[in-house]
Amino acid sequence: MTLKSVYKTDYVQSLDQQAQGNLNSSWVNDKGAWVTNVLLICVLKFFFGIIPGISPELSWTLTTLTYNIGSYIMFHAVTGVPFEFGQGAYDGITLWEQIDGGVQFTATRKYLTTVPIVLFLMSTHYTHYDAFAFLLTFSATVINLIAKLPSMHQVRLFDINQKIDATD
Amino acid sequence: MDNPIISVLNSTLSTVAQGIKYVPGSDIAIDYIKNSYQNDPFRVVLELGLAIYAVKYMMSKKYRIDQNHVALTEKEIDELIAEWQPEPLVQPLSDVQRMELEKSQVIVGSQGVRPKVQSTGKTLLNLAAANYYDFVNMEHIKEKAIETLRAYGVGSCGPPGFYGTLDVHMQLEKDIANFLGTEGAIIYAQGFSTIPSVISAFSKRGDLIVCDDGCNFAVQKGTQISRSNVKFFKHNDMADLERVLESIRVESLANKKRPLTRRFIVTEGLFQNSGDIAPLDKIMELKHKYKYRVVLDESSSIGVLGKTGRGLTELFNVPPKEVDMIVGSMANSFAAAGGFCAGHKEVVMHQRLSGQSFVFSASIPAMLTICSSEAIKVLDSPKGEQLIKDLHNNANTFRNAILTGANKDAIDLAGDAGSPILHLRFPSEALRAAGITTRDEETFLLQEVVDEVAVKDSLLVTRAKYVDGQERSLPRPSIRISISAAHSKKELEKAAQAIKTSFNKVVSKRNRDKYGTNVGGKKSQTTLLAGAEE
Q1: Count of domains in chain A?
Q2: How many domains, chain B?
Q3: Would you call A6 an interface residue with chain B, using a CB distance cutoff of 8 Å?
Q4: Which residue of B has its CA nearest to A101?
Q5: Quick one: B373 and B389 in the same domain?
Q6: B residues 217-276 near A, CB within 8 Å?
Q7: What is the per-residue pLDDT across B426-451, written as a single tens digit (0 to 9) for each?
Q8: What distance in Å separates residue B60's CA from the closest CA in chain A?
Q9: Chain A interface includes B58 (CB < 8 A)
Q10: Which tens digit of pLDDT belongs to each residue from B83-114?
Q11: Do B204 and A87 count as a contact with CB atoms less than 8 A apart?
Q12: C-alpha distances out from residue B432 to B181, B507, B529, Å
């Protein structure tokens, strides 16, 4: 594992970020967003539960995996702002890094970190501690949690989300 | 069992156990803990670790990741406050700034080719204004402006998107497009903010701009405000431009992950800061070869270059539709104020919603619009053709008069043939001989020339002025001459001779001051003074 590049946002980019609020990340602070998060997990569980041939154990494992992969893509894989409003002020920055202007341990961050842990504990319980299911859900959860660590803020491992500059 | 302490402990424990049962949800937790062990300590440790992490995360305090907070004691704070010296609200003027204030000429009455100045009350020959055809004093344009003022009032009172668009605006856009031979045009209310607005409307963060490093201040600000990656090539050096484009191509081939970017070549038609003309034919060749878009700032060249004043495209025989964006100013040869961008229909339409200074500033007053339309009409007529011919002849007359005849070595002339903008500088050898090393000293010396020709020869000339500290590379101090078609040949020849004499005189005087009256000791001095005696 090589820590290839640690880059911080440049000065002009941080000026542009402060020029206006970030519509792309402000919604995560809404209480409705928190409730929706739980609702989505319930919907996922229900969806996997009603598919014939899928045992309750498997449906729990699938729910946890889907939630972790989905939230990883949303918070850690996609960078920038999909509907641009600020001349690319957030280019190369993931949604997780945009939340609350990069402040760590805010209420929203705590909530979004705790949810996957609780989901994982529930999932291992309801799969009756099956070793294989445990291994899958545990690794998915841990990868998701590592990406959320404060020490991973704007750190790029294995070229994931590496910022590409056209010129120097 | 008789031990009272143990029995008390036992009863307490059972009470607590009973109590926990009444806590809602406690049986679930107890069940979970009972079930979860499953004779697998390793797994339990992992789960417990995660749970502890969750609790620890919940307890952590907020902090900013990029914060460099320094904790100061009361004493340190007091010390810092005691040490603090307020800076003056207004900085004391530097020598150059004070000179600028004292020596600036004030024109009394209207602007023109022969304005009256306040300092002496004399009428001077204006070689400082970009008043190429003296449209400001053309009677029928003035009358049209007054007529329009009566019909439309002064301002338009709103940005073009909010009731600020008048019929005359749309007419001028059509006039400009027809004049240049493009699909469409869009007009802006301020000349300076046109090019920054056009560049930043198309080129965003992550996009690529290749820009000439001799471009004017507005272009520099445009590339900066667009947040794009900017690469500069040496002024008018096509080999260097090709080198930059090639290096970008090679670089992008090497990186497969590179996203698709918009790419632009930005340059100026007739360079305000040097009087040079960009080789558009070669630029177009490179544009097609490397697939770039070209943004051409024709602020000074529109209405000036080319046989009929169509600018650089006419001069180099390039179809105007091939240049993606032709940006210009209506303040120079179009007799008004504001700027325009001409190009394809899509290019124009995009700016109506994304050109910052089009969207967010009030549209140009109707009378100025009419003046521009009239100026274009004049330029398009046989009279205009004659005016353009006069301008070219005048520019060449002045240029030849500077380059030939007596004292021709006293001036370093910058500016291509046919350009009505010329920069006059002291040759660097002359400066070295006179012992002038700093920029300020050179500026003062040039100002001496400006003052002398104003008094002695009734010429109004000016030093080229820049925003010190903001320019990418500050050009050497110079006197910027703007030729007009309304100057006569005789006047210009006389002016050129007078300026040359003054250039020579100022340097010789400096030499004498430096070495005393006894000259001839140093070789460089003798040559200079020999020139003065001619």
Answers
A1: 1
A2: 2
A3: no
A4: B64
A5: no
A6: 227, 229-231, 248, 251-252, 255, 257-259, 261
A7: 998 888 888 888 899 999 999 999 99
A8: 6
A9: yes
A10: 999 889 998 998 998 998 998 899 998 888 99
A11: yes
A12: 50, 10, 14
Contact B408, B402 (CB under 8 A): yes
* Dihedral angle sign, alpha carbons of residues B88, B92, B97, B103: positive
Q: At residue A2, does pLDDT exceed 60?
A: no
Q: Do A89 and B205 touch (CB under 8 A)?
A: yes
Model pLDDT for residues B251-282, shown as the tens digit of each residue: 888 876 666 789 999 999 999 999 999 999 99
Containing domain of residue A114, as a range? 5-156
Going from the C-alpha of B2 to that of each of A9, B11, B13, B14, B15, the distances in angstroms are 72, 13, 17, 18, 19
Considering the domain boundaries, does residue B254 fall inside one? yes
Q: What angle do the packed helices A107-126 and B26-36 form, to 10 degrees? A: 60
Look up residue B407 and give its amino acid.
N
Cross-chain Cβ contact A16/B227 below 8 Å: yes
Phi-psi label, residue A128: left if phi above 0, alpha if psi -120 to 50, beta otherwise: left
Return d(Cα B50, Cα B53) in angstroms, integer: 5
Spatial contact of B513 and B496, defined as CB atoms under 8 Å apart: no
Condensed to tens digits (0 to 9), the pLDDT of residues A143-160 reads: 999 989 888 877 777 766
Q: What is the pLDDT of residue A164?
A: 53
- Inter-residue contact B232 to B243 (CB < 8 Å): no
Q: Write out the two tokens for B14.
A: 């059972």
ipTM entry: 0.83
What does the DSSP assignment read for B436-480? --SHHHHHHHHHHHHHHHHHHS-EE-EE----TTTSSSPPPP-EE
Number of residues written out for chain A: 168
Considering only residues 64 to 123 of chain B, which have any Cβ-Cβ distance to chain A shorter than 8 Å?
64-66
Q: Which residues contact A56 (CB under 8 A, 6 or more apart)?
A: A49, A126
Choose between A2 and B59: higher pLDDT: B59
CATH of the domain at B184: 3.40.640.10
Residue A152: closest CA among A72, A97, A79: A97
- Does B405 have pLDDT greater than 70? yes
CATH of the domain at B504: 3.90.1150.10
Whole domain around residue B438: which residue ranges? 103-132+384-533
In a domain, B193, yes or no: yes
B128 lies in the same domain as B200: no
Mean pLDDT across chain A, nearest whole number? 83
Question: How far apart (Å, rounded) are the C-alpha atoms in residues A135 and A143?
Answer: 12
Nearest Cα of chain B lies from the Cα of A163 at a distance, in angstroms, of 9
Give residues with Cβ within 8 angstroms of A60, minimum separation 6: A45, A122, A123, A126, A127, A133
Taking each helix axis from N to C end, the angle separating A131-148 and A56-72, rounded to the nearest 10 degrees, works out to: 20
Question: B304-309: long-range contacts (C-beta < 8 A, 24 or more apart)?
Answer: B304/B132, B304/B270, B304/B332, B304/B333, B304/B388, B304/B391, B304/B420, B305/B269, B305/B270, B305/B277, B305/B418, B305/B419, B306/B388, B307/B385, B307/B388, B308/B379, B308/B380, B308/B384, B308/B385, B308/B388, B309/B333, B309/B379, B309/B384, B309/B388
Q: At what angle do helices B194-202 and B345-354 cross, to 10 degrees?
A: 100
